Backbone:
């Protein structure tokens, strides 16, 4: 299949979602190029053109965008500071952009509730003003977030974490990618803000038990205080406002479970994958 967009550039191609976007685009017969910082380490499939580029060095982007009709954009930073230069480069070449945003973005708020949603909202606004044809993907929590428990699960089968009753509609990265591929290659997605979720909510305790069933070993949840997790997350992530934003969201999901939306099936024609399917796909990561 030769797509209507011609060559498609995937930015964030080595990440959870971008890697899936690359392989599903190739599977659909599209012409795909991947922008990566380190081509030698990218480990991408045959058939994709791999080019070196860096979003923090806008001067590297022009050659990557040469001949490109559509762009899939993952934003790996915690502010939108570098976005105007990146979008300037994109719109000199491409006609269409599909942006990986977040379900947390609220259209009715000028100031978002945390820094992550703020940078996503800022980038969405810049894209709206860019003149590009755009689609925003707004996923709920990624099922891949639970990989942070993998070292403990492999070590002793006990997950020590706060807010066991927090209920999320975790979404499979393959489903986010499947919607991205439709938006990149098909028509009728311009101006859409797609809320992408899994097909049901599960509490964090239920997620851990589901992973246990997938790997054939019972796992245990041990509730710890938010303060104890805060220290761990601060060591891992380094940014206090980012950590507090995540903890506030988990606290909120105890009383207000994350929404479930039909969008994945509406767009792709296939039901959203369950967390059980995700855990089975990733069983090797937890064994
Ligand atoms: N996790 C969630 O629950 C959730 C929910 C909603 C939205 N989101 C959003 O999803 C996005 C992350 O998606 P993901 O999990 O698929 O990504 P990821 O696995 O964290 O990967 C990040 C990607 O960005 C690339 N990258 C990093 N710095 C770069 C730079 N300076 N120039 C070019 N590329 C660079 C990385 O490439 P290298 O190989 O070079 O490192 C990698 O391919 C974030 O914006 C996040 O806010 C996440």
Residues:
């Amino acid at each position: 299949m030769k797509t209507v967009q011609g060559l498609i550039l995937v930015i964030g191609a080595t990440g959870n979602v971008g890697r899936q976007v690359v392989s599903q685009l190739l599977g659909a017969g599209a012409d795909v190029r991947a922008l990566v910082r380190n081509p030698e380490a990218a480990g991408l499939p045959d058939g994709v053109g791999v080019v070196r580029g860096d979003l923090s060095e806008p001067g590297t982007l022009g050659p990557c965008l040469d001949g490109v009709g559509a762009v899939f954009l993952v934003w790996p930073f915690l502010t939108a500071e570098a976005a105007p230069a990146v979008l300037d480069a994109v719109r000199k070449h491409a006609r269409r952009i599909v942006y990986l945003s977040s379900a947390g973005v609220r259209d009715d708020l000028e100031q978002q509730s945390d820094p992550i949603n703020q940078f996503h909202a800022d980038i969405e606004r810049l894209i709206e003003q860019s003149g590009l044809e755009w689609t925003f993907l707004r996923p709920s929590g990624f099922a891949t977030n639970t990989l942070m428990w993998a070292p403990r699960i492999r070590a002793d089968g006990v997950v020590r974490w706060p807010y066991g009753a927090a209920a999320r509609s975790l979404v499979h990265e393959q489903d986010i990618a499947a919607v991205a591929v439709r938006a990149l290659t098909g028509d009728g997605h311009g101006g859409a803000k797609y809320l992408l979720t899994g097909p049901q909510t599960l509490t964090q305790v239920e997620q851990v038990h589901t992973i246990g069933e997938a790997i054939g070993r019972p796992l245990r949840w041990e509730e710890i205080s938010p303060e104890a997790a805060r220290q761990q997350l601060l060591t891992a992530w380094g940014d206090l406002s980012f950590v507090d934003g995540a903890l506030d969201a988990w606290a909120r999901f105890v009383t207000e479970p994350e929404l479930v939306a039909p969008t994945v099936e509406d767009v792709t024609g296939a039901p959203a994958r369950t967390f059980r399917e995700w855990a089975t796909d990733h069983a090797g990561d937890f064994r």
Notes: The domain at 7-138+173-196+260-272 is CATH 3.40.50.720 (Rossmann fold). The pocket of NAP is lined by residues 12-18, 36-38, 54-56, 74-76, 100, 102, 116, 139, 141-142, 145 (CB under 6 Å). The first helix runs from residue 16 to 27.
